[in-house]
Design a protein that fits this description.
With about 350 residues, this protein is an alpha/beta fold. It has helices at about 5-15, 25-35, 60-70, 80-85, 95-100, 110-120, 135-145, 160-175, 185-190, 195-200, 210-225, 245-255, 300-305, 330, 335-345; strands at about 20-25, 45-50, 75-80, 105, 125-130, 155-160, 180, 205, 230-235, 255-260, 265-275. Helix 2 links the parallel strand 1 (about 20-25) and strand 2. The chain is globular, with a radius of gyration of 20 Å. Bound molecules: iron/sulfur cluster.
């Protein structure tokens, strides 16, 4: 174990080749900003944020579909709070609600069970977005719905998986020298998820916890592993190589891989999960999402999500677009890069 002081000194005084390291987890993005980690690094090490915020990577077409569903007479859209404030083509779910749309905010997808049971005359559609971490929760929801014989519950799915988008960023965009692997995702999938990617891309991956010193240790490891296609698990208290097999099996019972549309990227083959045919009755119409227009044409969320620019490079950042006057999804979500750069004055 390298003493933290040595790690800090090494990272501050590093004078090797310039490195760009990407964190692919909204919680890491938040912690990096809160702890002021960019200020602890040499100017030769740049941290950039990736597509780790589930709300941010969801395409406009999906928001528009939720809005249309909420305006149907017997349908109620159920969602987490962040999704309410993201603007689709013209309006947000909050706007739709103000016009009579039926929208309920919950803290857990499982809350939808009670809503559906208590209101049998309505159909409840849960906005099922998220990564490998959340998919098993939706599987649990459907399992319970089947057990309780609840038939007025649906999912509008835009579920994502990490390997495809990481590969897209590394190969199509390039200029990344290593990844801080998504921590919550790794708990479910295990660190082995990143092994084929590391080998193929010849890039290092470090699985990290969420404390400031754990993130610093991961950055140190990535610098030391530069140019090597290796995965290092620095979060063994929560992450194993195999992951949570029970959660993986639960997800595999209800969902199967599919192509998926990402904001700012387009469709990446095999980068999503959809309901299996035998559970198609739970689907609220999730097929064919692909449009990617933005509410404000000057919004640079697409480039921010792929690490092409920093949030503060967007012309609207901090001027027109703030947490109080959001112009794009990355400023709306509590896991969004722009939001965290703004509230923590992160500059890199
Ligand atoms: S600062 Fe606002 S407008 Fe610019 S990329 Fe971020 S969310 Fe979009």
């Amino acid at each position: 174990m390298i003493p933290l002081n040595e790690i800090k000194t090494f990272l501050k005084e590093y004078s090797g080749p310039p490195l760009r390291l990407m964190e692919v987890c909204g919680t890491h993005t938040a912690q990096i900003s809160r702890c002021g980690i960019p200020g602890m690094l040499s100017s030769a090490i740049q941290l950039i944020s990736g597509p780790g915020c589930p709300v941010c990577v969801t395409v406009t077409d999906y928001i528009d579909r939720l809005i249309r569903l909420s305006l149907q007479p017997d349908t109620v859209v159920v969602t987490f709070g962040d999704m309410l404030r993201v603007t689709g083509t013209d309006q947000s779910l909050n706007d739709a609600k103000a016009q009579g749309g039926q929208v309920r905010m919950v803290y857990s997808p499982l809350d939808t069970l009670n809503l559906a049971r208590q209101n049998p005359d309505k159909t409840f559609v849960f906005a099922a977005v998220g990564f490998e971490t959340t998919t098993p929760v939706y599987a649990m929801l459907l399992k319970e719905a089947l057990r309780m014989d609840i038939r007025n519950l649906r999912l509008l799915t835009s579920l994502k998986t990490m390997p495809g988008v990481i590969e897209w960023i590394a190969q199509k965009q390039g200029g990344i020298d290593g990844f801080i692997a998504p921590g919550h995702v790794s708990v479910v999938t295990g660190s082995r998820l990143f092994e084929p990617l590391a080998e193929k891309l010849k890039l290092p991956f470090a699985v990290a916890g969420f404390q400031g010193e754990e993130i610093l240790t991961a950055i140190y490891a990535l610098v030391k592993m530069r140019g090597r296609g290796k995965v290092l698990n620095l979060y063994p208290s929560a992450v194993t190589r195999e992951g949570n097999l029970e959660a993986q099996e639960a997800a595999a019972e209800f969902f199967t891989p599919c192509d998926s549309a990402w904001r700012g990227i387009g469709v990446i083959p095999g980068s999503g999960m959809r309901l299996k045919e035998k559970y198609a009755a739970f689907d609220a119409g999730s097929e064919g999402l692909d449009s990617d227009h933005v509410h404000n044409p000057l919004c640079r969320c697409a480039q921010v999500l792929t690490g092409a620019i920093r949030p503060c490079d967007c012309p609207l950042f901090g001027r027109v677009c703030t947490p109080a006057s959001q112009q794009g999804a990355c400023m709306v979500s509590s896991e969004g890069s722009c939001y965290h750069y703004y509230i923590n004055r992160r500059k890199n």
